[in-house]
């Protein structure tokens, strides 16, 4: 077991490690269980969040029809907001990635990474504002079969609502990180969809 304190670590393709629960005031733990680090990853943790740069971490538990919610921000002073995450991660080459991007992009982005020509751009939603460093944003990702919805903050309509019609897998783990610039994560929540939300999501209806 590796224990993280308030200092910086460089990790290169390690095996599974356990992250002690990190709490935001009275909120549930944002990280727990077993995670794997990928890339030349730098991790910094404190009592409220985890900051990742140069790689990403993947949870060991696999999910199918699920809801993912996470708060993210670029630390103050970072030149550009690049907040990345993933879901349905099978291995390093097969995963779905999402991002809230500032800089020259200012959008929410979704794609499928897969080997042998299987990668696919799934869409982007332009933002009507420029994401700022030091500001927390929450993304909620709903996964129901081949349909995905991404909500921003407490909005009731999805910014992205897409179907991956030729998806070749429908389960996998969630990931945090993936960009070269530092990104801070807090209050990760995962849960299986109930039947009502699953039905609404699969049909393309808004769920909030």
Inertia-based shape: globular
User: Element order, helices and strands?
Assistant: EEEEEEEEEEEEEEH
What is the radius of gyration computed over CA atoms, rounded to a whole number of angstroms?
16 Å
Low-confidence stretches: 1-14, 20-29
Compile the SSE list and pairings:
Elements (H helix, E strand, L loop, with lengths): L7 E5 L4 E2 L15 E12 L4 E10 L6 E8 L8 E10 L2 E8 L5 E7 L6 E7 L10 E8 L2 E6 L7 E4 L9 E5 L5 E10 L2 H9 L5
Antiparallel strand pairs: 1-3, 2-3, 3-4, 4-13, 4-14, 5-10, 5-14, 6-7, 6-13, 7-8, 8-9, 10-11, 11-12
Question: How would you explain this protein's 3D organization?
Answer:
By secondary structure, the chain is mainly β. It has a single domain (8-203), classed as Jelly Rolls (Sandwich), CATH 2.60.120.560. It is 4% helix and 49% strand. The protein has one helix spanning 195-203; strands at 8-12, 17-18, 34-45, 50-59, 66-73, 82-91, 94-101, 107-113, 120-126, 137-144, 147-152, 160-163, 173-177, 183-192. Strands 1, 2, 3, 4, 5, 6, 7, 8, 9, 10, 11, 12, 13 and 14 form a 14-stranded antiparallel β-sheet that branches. A hairpin with a 6-residue loop joins strand 8 and strand 9 (120-126). The longest helix is centred in the C-terminal third of the chain and has 9 residues, at 195-203. The chain is globular and about 40 Å long. Mean pLDDT is 85; it is low at 1-14 and 20-29.
